[in-house]
Design a protein that fits this description.
510 residues; globular; mainly alpha; Sodium/glucose cotransporter; two-stranded antiparallel ribbon
Length: 510
């Protein structure tokens, strides 16, 4: 055990724990109301929303997984950079409308909006269940970053003792989320981002200088890992997968319940627009994070016997901790590890709150207790947030990590199937809710089948068209099927006529 790293990590982790509990008194509101507990009272301004969304979207798993993908697979790992650039113009144009209609009608989730727009209970439940199922493995994956740094510090052992640090960390997370709601991750996100920016600044200056400059870093990487495989006469090669992964991921990102929660916690639609203009700063950080994969290759950390056990246990995800330990003094490595650890707390807290909001509003209240009081609604959400976190913890402890990765891969394919109901619904009521439900089912089935043919190990499906192979993100192909089915059935059902229910008006979206 490296006591210097552990001490710095524990001190910083303890500090954010205190901050998480103290956040209950920040912008005090009645936490027995769901919008106060689960959306921070919808009172966050531009700066707080920027930190919250940044902490929510750029997670601990991102911190270790993106460099690990570049370390293992090469240039394809950089698809995460263009997708986070594509997404913000989309957010700027679309999500102020979503905020406005949600604020007008008191919607807390995307499924609330679907219920109000279409008046369809089953379409509402489909959107809610999709959000829950897509998000829960994402929570489990936040534990990966925490597990990796705990293992790198030498803390742990066999059986329960090996898992005890992780259990303690998530008990703390569960406690301050229960007491403070969304205010806790919003406050902690500020600390997390300061630590991450400090770490990245040090990384891009110190490590290349130790390795002889960026030229030597790139020269040390195998040429096949520096560029994408070029198209051929029979296939688009890696280009199709790279482009569609970027586009599909961009369309899916803000459909996740935790991203929706961050949007709805803002105090005005102008805050959403300002953040869409400011959040690309995180994309710069993400690009620099990805370069750490090449730095780890150039530093030869995998060949270092001191890190052999870490790579054996965690695979490529150990590349970042190994690089940090090889390049910095122990005290600063402790700071960097704390940034990763705290980077797990913020998104895990927001994701569990978002799942709790969805279950309470769109399953419990919709299907089980439609007459529940505001206080009962809030209590149920708090309990569900605990259950969700416990479920993620049990999942990551008892089951192989590969299962969580595979489910998260499927989650991206599934969540994008809610796009026609949610995003199209912001602009038109032309689609029939029965057609949208059929399209959703067709998209889910198609995307799952495509992932299944790849043994759930990848999401780029080699689609054959007239003898030419077009590799593409399965989620995007499934979305096309979804839209075609929804549009075709809507033509038929609209021609047949029938009652339309919509509690929103055109003025609500402005």
């Amino acid at each position: 055990m490296n006591w210097t790293i552990v001490t710095v990590f524990v001190v910083l982790f303890g500090g954010v724990t205190i901050l998480g509990f103290a956040a209950a008194r920040w912008r005090r509101g009645d936490l027995d109301l769901l919008h106060e507990w689960g959306l921070g009272g919808r009172r966050f301004g531009t700066v707080v929303t920027w930190f919250l969304l940044g902490g929510d979207l750029y997670t601990a798993y991102t911190f270790v997984a993106v460099p690990a993908l570049v370390f293992g697979a090469g240039a394809v790992g950089f698809f995460a950079v263009p997708y986070t650039i594509i997404v913000y113009p989309f957010v700027f144009l679309v999500f102020p409308r979503f905020w406005s209609v949600a604020h007008k009608h008191g919607y807390i989730t995307a499924a609330d909006f679907v219920r109000g727009r279409y008046g369809s209970r089953w379409l509402t439940v489909a959107v809610a269940v999709t959000g829950l199922v897509a998000t829960m493995p994402y929570i489990a994956l936040q534990l990966v970053g925490l597990q990796v740094v705990i293992g790198a510090m030498g803390v742990g052992g066999q059986g329960l003792m090996g898992d005890l640090p992780l259990i303690i960390a998530f008990l703390i997370l569960a406690a301050f989320t229960y007491t403070s709601g969304l205010r806790a991750p919003a406050a902690i996100a500020v600390v997390k981002d300061v630590l991450i920016y400090a770490t990245i600044l040090a990384v891009i200056i110190v490590i290349p200088s130790e390795l002889g400059g960026y030229g030597k870093v790139f020269a040390a990487v195998a040429p096949a890992k520096l560029i994408l495989a070029a198209p051929t006469a029979a296939s688009l090669g890696a280009y199709g997968g790279y482009a569609t992964l970027a586009l599909g991921s961009a369309l899916a990102l803000f459909l996740y319940p935790h991203a929706m929660t961050g949007v709805l916690s803002a105090n005005s639609r102008h805050v959403i627009r300002r953040n869409a203009a400011m959040l690309p700063a995180y994309s710069i950080v993400l690009g620099l994070l990805a370069l750490m994969g090449y730095m780890a290759l150039a530093a030869g950390v995998k060949q270092n016997p001191a890190y052999a056990d870490g790579f054996k246990q965690f695979g490529s995800t150990f590349a970042v901790p190994a690089l940090l330990m090889a390049s910095f003094p122990d005290w600063f490595t402790g700071v960097a590890f704390a940034a990763i650890g705290i980077g797990a707390l913020v998104p895990a807290a927001v994701m569990s709150i978002a799942c709790a909001n969805l279950f309470t509003r769109n399953i419990y209240k919709e299907m089980i207790r439609p007459d529940c009081s505001d206080a009962e609604e809030s209590r149920m959400a708090k309990m569900v947030s605990l259950i969700v976190k416990i479920g993620a913890l049990v999942f990551i402890i008892l089951l192989p990590l590969q299962y969580a990765i595979q489910l998260q891969l499927l989650g991206g394919i599934w969540i994008i199937q809610t796009l026609p109901a949610v995003i199209f619904g912001l602009y038109t009521r032309w689609f029939d809710p029965r057609a949208l439900l059929a399209g959703w089912a067709a998209g889910i089935a198609t995307g799952t089948w495509m992932a299944g043919t790849l043994a759930f190990k990848a999401s780029v499906f080699p689609l054959s068209v007239f003898g030419y192979t077009v590799p593409g993100y399965a989620a995007l192909y499934a979305l096309i099927v979804n839209i075609v089915v929804a549009a075709g059935l809507s033509l038929i059902l609209n021609a047949a006529g029938g009652e339309r229910r919509d509690e929103t008006a055109a003025a609500d979206y402005r």
